[in-house]
Design brief:
Blueprint: H1 7-29, H2 61-77, H3 84-98, H4 102-118
Helix pairs in contact: 2-3, 2-4, 3-4
Length: 120
């Protein structure tokens, strides 16, 4: 035996359906911003690390060399902070990068740099 719904229940279901359709229509009607131009030409210089901007890095030997240079500069600027653990981590990290173990090398170089910065 089929279930009969009251008139109030049918009106309620109809109102819910209309409300859902209006919600979908309002979302679809919102203006979409155009995608950014992908010209490949930068119009201004990117912010430097000293300005507090985030730096996007990749796991490359160039980044290994950059970290090694930063560690060397920190060690020259603060020779008292260059403890043997930092020196060993930096050397091991550079050796791993030179051997093709980029991620492990970067991990050690980053850790050495953090240790140097925390001992200032």
């Amino acid at each position: 035996m089929p279930v009969r719904h009251s008139r109030a229940m049918r009106v309620y279901r109809t109102l819910l359906l209309v409300a859902a359709l209006l919600a979908v229509a309002s979302v679809a009607a919102q203006p979409q911003s155009p995608p950014p131009a992908q010209t490949g030409v930068m119009t201004q210089e990117p912010p430097t690390a000293q300005q507090g901007a985030l730096t996007v890095t990749t796991d490359t030997t160039a980044y290994c060399d950059d970290l090694a240079d930063r560690i060397a500069a920190e060690q020259r600027a603060h020779p008292a902070a260059a403890v043997p653990e930092v020196r060993a981590l930096a050397e091991e990290g550079q050796h791993m990068c030179d051997s093709g173990l980029i991620r492990g090398g970067l991990t050690r170089l980053r850790r050495a740099l953090l240790m140097l910065e925390s001992q200032k």
